[in-house]
Description:
Keywords: 2Fe-2S, Iron, Iron-sulfur, Metal-binding. The chain has about 100 residues and is mainly beta.
Amino acid sequence: MRYYSLEKLINLYDGYRKVFKIDSHHLMLLQIDGQRYLIESQCPHREYPLRSSDVEGGELVCPQHGYRFDIRSGELLAASEEPCRNLRCYTLADRDNEVGVMLAE
């Protein structure tokens, strides 16, 4: 496992969103109501970018087909077409004055 720095803690605020590509991982860091989340940045249904997705009551809504995922667990809550796998969620790691993620090399 290797640590990858994503952002300085001082730069995070509610409403923050940023997409990262690390090797084959497409990630999106969000902060909502003081909580930080790191999820895959593409919908597992048809790989539509989630950067402009809405988050409503703890649910992330894909802007393309309205698929709904639990922002904390990634669990698929509602599908408008065929079901798909859950959204991948990653554990954030704080180091010094930054937040990052541990990923397999």
